[in-house]
Amino acid sequence: MTEGVGSKSIVFLTMVIEVDLKSESDFTDVEVADVHYSSSDDEHYRYRPDADEWRTRLCLRGSDCQDPHCNHAHCLAELRPPNETRVLHPEVWAAGIGRFYGQAMTAELLRVFNDYYFKTHEFECPLWAHALYFSIKKHDLLADAHFPWDYGLTMDVDVLRRGRVGGQRPFEYLPGLWGALQSRERQLAFEQDYN
Ligand SMILES: [Zn+2]
Description:
It contains six helices and two strands, in the order E-E-H-H-H-H-H-H. The protein is mainly alpha-helical. Helix 4 crosses helix 5.
């Protein structure tokens, strides 16, 4: 897990996106939200629309961000979906969130993810992050066969839907991803039966 420098092709299961990984100059014109909220005032927090976007994207300043009012995530494990227990936020999903649920990701989100991913110890990496990495790298489906990144992804989507008003999945899956996960599941079950 130490590669990822320079320009490379990120190959999804059915599409190729050219991403200039770790090109920090690309971050300069991306606006960083300046959201203020008080964690001691729960009611205030709950009803502020911008607070529902809390930790939905990784901070472009990195994990050493010193802004006490920054509402972005500063490590992969902090990322979460928008709070949709009361109100749906399709605009937040449309803008792109950092956490991977199997949805297509923008080049910008992948670039920031890549930067954090390679600075995160493997044991601190959430399963969804490994799932995104596997999707990007187009690994053989049986590589790391007993590492449950696909299970983690499936569970995350399930939890997301249960905690969301209406229970709908708020995005389209990355083309080809879900079919690939199902064939991994079938192949692993086959291996288990005959080994
Ligand atoms: Zn920050």
